[in-house]
Every structure is written in C-alpha cells, then in structure tokens.
Amino acid sequence: MNGTNHQALNGNPLRRTWRGNKQGTIELTTVPKFESPYEEREWIKEHMAAAFRYWGKLGFGEGVSGHITVRDPVLVDHFWMNPFAEHFSAITKSMLVLVGPDGYVSKYGAQLPINQAGFHIHSAIHKARPDVHAAAHCHSLHGKAWSAFGRPIEILTQDSCLFHENISVYQNFGGIVLAQEEGDKIAQALGPKAKTCILQNHGLLTLGKTVDEAVYLFAALDRQCQVQLLTEAAAANGIPKTIISKEDADYTAQTIQWWENTYINFQPEYKLLLKETKGDFLL
Questions:
Q1: How many angstroms from the chain centroid is the CA of residue 40?
Q2: Any idea where the Class II aldolase/adducin N-terminal domain is (predicted)?
Q3: pLDDT digits 0-9 by tens, 43-68
C-alpha cells in the first residue's frame, strides 16, 4: 500500500469521468433508452456487427473460432450470434443469426449455420448469468499465450484495474467444446460476478451488459495479457515489477469498471468504424 489518501467517490461513476460547461447544457450521449424491444433489437445488431468488425481490425480471426452472443430483447430466451465460417471483418447486421434455447437456428434471423462450441459455451453463460446480456470469446494471440500459464493477470497498470477482482480462471482444458458439460464448467468458473475469464490453454472470455462492454473488455484484456508477457520477460532479467496496491486498485476500479464507462470506451471505435466502412456493417 502506498499511503495514498483517496477522496470519497460520489455520484454516478460515469459522471465522474467527464465535464461539460458551467451552464450544464453539454451532455454526453450514453446507452439509449428504447420505447420498443424491437427497436432495441435493431440497435443491438448494429453494435454487434461493429464489434465483429473491430475484432477483424485487431487481427483476432482464427479460422472458424470465435463468437459473440447477445441476448435478444424480444425473445429473451434466444440470443444473436455470428454465422459459422465467416470472417469477422465481413460481418454485417443482416448476417447475424438468432439462436433458440434448443440450440438451433431460428427463423427470425439469417438462415446460416452457427458454431457448435459457441452455442455450448454461450448458452451456459446466458443461463448462469442473467445480469449480463453479451458474451465474447475468441482466440486472440496474447490471450492465448498468457492462458498457457493458467493464471490471472496482475494489476500492473491503471488499465489493468478493469480486471481487479473482476477476473477468473478456468484451470482446465477439456479439448474443443463439443458438449454442454464443458460449457457449464466454464460458466461455473466465471462465478456470479466476474465479467472476464482466462480459459487455460484456450483463450479469453468476457461479458457485458452491452455488446460494447463485452468487446471492449476483451480487447483490453488481450492488451493486458501482452503487457503481462512483456513485464514477465523484463522481470526474468532482474528488473523488479511493481504491482498496484489493493487500495489504489479498489479506488480506480470503482470508476472504470462501471458498465456505462466500459460502454463509452468502445464508442470511439464504433464511430471510427462507421467512417472507415461508410456504414457497410449496418447492411
């Protein structure tokens, strides 16, 4: 502990992070409220498509591996999912598939096949964690590398406070997930509160109240795995590392882990994708 005297945190955690004018007429646009679940469905699909494009930009594609799911606000026991064997960088809103609780493609979304392992993992998570709406998993490079240790990351930087007491480890590799039992074990490893998980010898998994939160946490965790790997290499050569104290990590996490803040952190990427693609992913 470094003896820092932190002031008490008041108010909404999102409101702590930005400031407008004295007149109070400048507002920050955050998660919209919807009159209709059908309207919300369309918004979710737009942001899902952007999330996949973001993964494509980051080079997270690995053959047919990787999936994001979001609970449907209309048919609440269904979830949206990417189609099988399509590159993240090519995903559009109209390509998203609505999957029923029986694990089969429903008639309401794209009529395309889905990833079997993705259904087993994500259906178990959506069942176990009604507090979250989105789940994201793929085989990113640094996440895979760090997962070989079967350990959580350390709280080494301000950004890593996103994962302070917010990460679990599934310390088992039961092979490719082709049965519901393995999906249930992963959901159990996440526990009731953690939004991020390292799957030993496999990769990363993140959750969110929005797809924006889930995909932002995923990219942030992959980068933090890279930081950890670089730090471990330096430490192995005799350079000591400093881990952030629990007091400072607690204080920082109270703000940056708030779900609206993690949502907002993805919005610059969403806006850039709109500009770069001329809205192609909205089709």
A1: 19
A2: 46-229
A3: 999 999 999 999 999 999 999 999 99
Q: What stretches of the chain show up as alpha helix (H) in DSSP?
A: 37-57, 116-128, 141-147, 180-190, 211-235, 246-256, 259-277
Burial of 197 (0-12, 13-18, 19+ CB in 10 A): buried
Q: What is the largest CA-CA distance in the chain?
A: 59
CA distance 30 to 197: 26
Contact 98, 78 (CB under 8 A): yes
In b/e form, how buried is each residue of 70-88, taking b as 16+ CB within 10 angstroms?
Answer: bbbbeeeebbbbbbeebeb
Strands (E) across 54-162 are located at 67-71, 79-81, 97-99, 134-138
H or E element, residue 17: none
Place of tokens 């309207």: 39
Q: Are 47 and 80 in contact (CB under 8 A)?
A: no
Average pLDDT over residues 114-126: 91
CB atoms within 10 A of CB 283: 10
Q: Which two tokens stand for residue 116?
A: 């079997």
The residues with which 65 forms a beta bridge, in sequence order, are 62
Model pTM score: 0.94
> Whole-angstrom Cα distance, residue 255 to residue 261?
8
140-175 per-position pLDDT tens digit: 999 999 999 999 999 999 999 999 999 999 988 766
